[in-house]
Specification:
single chain; 521 residues; alpha+beta; FAD/NAD(P)-binding domain; Flavocytochrome C3, Chain A, domain 1; Methane Monooxygenase Hydroxylase, Chain G, domain 1; seven-stranded mixed β-sheet; five-stranded mixed β-sheet; 21 strands; 19% strand; globular; binds flavin-adenine dinucleotide; binds succinic acid
């Protein structure tokens, strides 16, 4: 058993940025599933959106672009905070050692889909790695923070309606251990692993979302899973992301006849919103492969600006400065999550959520490119005052927690994992259908029972991840069935594009698993 003022689950940008600020007020324990660096953050390419150059850009423009991408469902007040407070955190990252690209001393600014001005600060094409490294470096020099690597959070500990800690499985020695705290902060990232094709690393199995749901917190907007249009499409290769910044620097999409096609789908052509580009690629792929071509730009520019992508593609046998890159879409980002207010409070006392796990409502029905790292920074910083005040008012408090046996991994788990991920891709993916979603929820409910019975035999990491993948898939599918329209990234072939009703789906754990839909003001 271990005890801290604050326990933070997750060591991506949200968890680390929060911890570094909160450590000034009390002891912080960070729990993380693998090594500190392993996170979605570490793979972020394009950059961070922020209004830097006020001669060509303005907060109003950034707000307008965010709201347009969000298809009428953004929380406008939270979008205002996001945009207004963003630039402060870019400067703070620089102070912490992040080396963003510069041009004559000023930040170089990139362009991505849906942005009406150049406003993406970047560190070549590996922005996430630069940010994560600097945060880990600072964490190692901060006395009040203790990190526990290879520690997998299993379940939140709730006592008399308050979250007071988390049960973890230490993957090094197989021990189950309880961490208690005056405040618990979830920063476990996304759920890309729910889908067979994803840009997300293995850690992104929706653990925080599923844990919070099981503990009784309200979930919001779970139907809105964003698919990135351009990942490397080569058999037996992972869906390695080809950043939208490649299109921002002149890359174009072409079909199997070598023709450009995006003008037929959207006036912004190759820089149309992600959902439009992903569906267009899916359509074009019916008659053959689709490619992203930037080979017209000088080789030197490509190798310099997209150094990491160039190297990876070279490794996979593609010369992006000489030939088009075969691409296809993959699951990328969860716009919904654990519902929080503008300071990270969830509906469960003592529990806070940040970053991709949380839903502040800033992304609405579709996230604007490079607004995610921004949200992690802004809302992690905003949470510090509220969490530390809660911490000061709260007495530490521990309870007995049941012991859980460890069981060996079973082949069944791998099989169920594969089938859930493929089914979600087919039926609750980029293009959805009502009968497909209804079939899926039935199968997921059956699989959930099977997972519950396996859990009675004991726990192990693959089984814990499977439980969360199935839970997250159920949340996505339930919310998707509830939404009787197509909106943003939720596209159902039989249902018309957005109607005038503006409501969002809140889901709360109840015996009958009944979602509550609330109108948005
Ligand atoms: P993460 O960075 O994913 O961190 C989650 C942490 O929680 C990890 O440390 C993980 O190990 C830990 N964890 C998870 N489950 C458990 C558990 N059960 N127990 C203990 N620890 C756990 N966004 C942008 O704005 N700009 C970009 O350019 C961009 N590019 C991207 C490129 C790729 C390939 C991907 C995948 C995403 C990209 N995104 C981008 C999205 C953005 O990177 C993420 O949304 C953001 O980094 C999420 O940060 P986070 O701190 O919330 O979660
Ligand atoms: C990218 O570089 O295309 C990813 C940007 C993002 O997800 O915001």
């Amino acid at each position: 058993m271990k005890s801290f003022d604050i326990v933070v689950i997750g060591s991506g940008v949200a968890g680390l940025y929060f911890s570094l600020h909160a450590a000034e007020h009390g002891s912080v324990g960070i729990i993380t599933k693998k090594e500190l660096m392993e996170s979605n953050t570490n793979y972020a390419q394009g950059g961070i959106a922020a209004v830097i150059d006020t001669a060509t850009d303005s907060p109003d423009l950034h707000i307008k672009d965010t709201l347009e991408a969000g298809a009428g469902l953004c929380d406008v007040s939270n979008v205002n905070h996001l945009v207004e407070e963003g630039p402060i955190h870019i400067r703070r990252l620089v102070e912490m050692g992040v080396g963003f690209n510069r041009d004559h001393g000023h930040f170089s600014l990139g362009l991505e889909g849906g942005h009406s001005a150049r406003r993406i600060v970047f560190a070549r094409d590996a922005t996430g790695k630069a940010v994560e490294r600097a945060l880990v470096f600072n964490e190692r020099r901060t006395e009040n923070v203790t990190a526990f690597e290879s520690m997998v959070a299993m379940d939140l500990i709730v006592d008399r309606g308050r979250c007071i800690g988390v049960m973890c499985l230490d993957r090094e020695n197989g021990n189950v251990e309880a961490f208690f705290a005056k405040a618990v902060v979830l920063a476990t990232g996304g759920l890309g692993q729910v889908y067979v094709n994803t840009t997300n690393p293995r850690i992104a199995s929706g653990d925080g979302i599923a844990m919070a749901y099981r503990a009784g917190a309200v979930m919001q907007d779970m139907e809105f899973v964003q698919f990135h249009p351009t990942t490397l499409d080569k058999r037996y290769k992972p869906h390695f992301l080809i950043s939208e910044a490649v299109r921002g620097e002149g890359g174009v999409l072409i079909n199997s006849k070598g023709e450009r096609f995006m003008h037929r789908y959207h006036p912004s052509k190759d820089l149309a919103p992600r959902d439009v580009v992903a569906r267009a690629i899916l359509g074009e792929r019916k008659s053959g492969p689709v490619y992203l071509d930037i080979s017209k730009r000088p080789s030197r520019f490509i190798r310099e600006r997209f150094a990491s992508i160039f190297d990876q593609l070279w490794w996979y046998g593609v010369r992006m400065d000489r030939e088009p890159i075969p691409v296809s879409p993959a699951a990328h980002y969860c716009c919904g999550g654990v519902r929080v207010d503008d300071h990270g409070r969830t509906s469960l006392e003592g529990l806070y959520a940040l970053g991709e796990t949380a839903c502040t409502g800033v992304h609405g029905a579709n996230r604007l490119a490079s607004n995610s790292l921004l949200e992690c920074l802004v809302y992690s910083a905003r949470a510090v005052s509220v969490v530390t005040e809660d911490m000061r008012k709260t007495q530490s408090h521990e309870t007995e927690v049941p012991k859980r046996p460890i069981s060996p991994e079973r082949a069944d788990v791998r099989r169920i994992r594969r089938s859930v991920r493929s089914m979600m891709w087919r039926n609750v993916g980029i293009v959805r259908s009502v009968p497909g979603m209804k079939r899926t929820i039935k199968t997921l409910n059956d699989l959930n029972e099977r997972v519950q019975s396996l859990l009675k035999e004991g726990v192990n990491v693959p089984l814990l991840e499977l439980r969360n993948i199935v839970e997250a898939a159920r949340l996505i599918t339930t919310a998707a069935i509830m939404r009787r329209e197509s909106r943003g990234v939720h596209y159902v072939k039989e249902l018309p594009e957005r109607n005038d009703e503006r409501w969002r789906c809140h889901i709360l754990l109840r015996q009958d698993y009944d979602p509550i839909c609330q109108p948005v003001e």
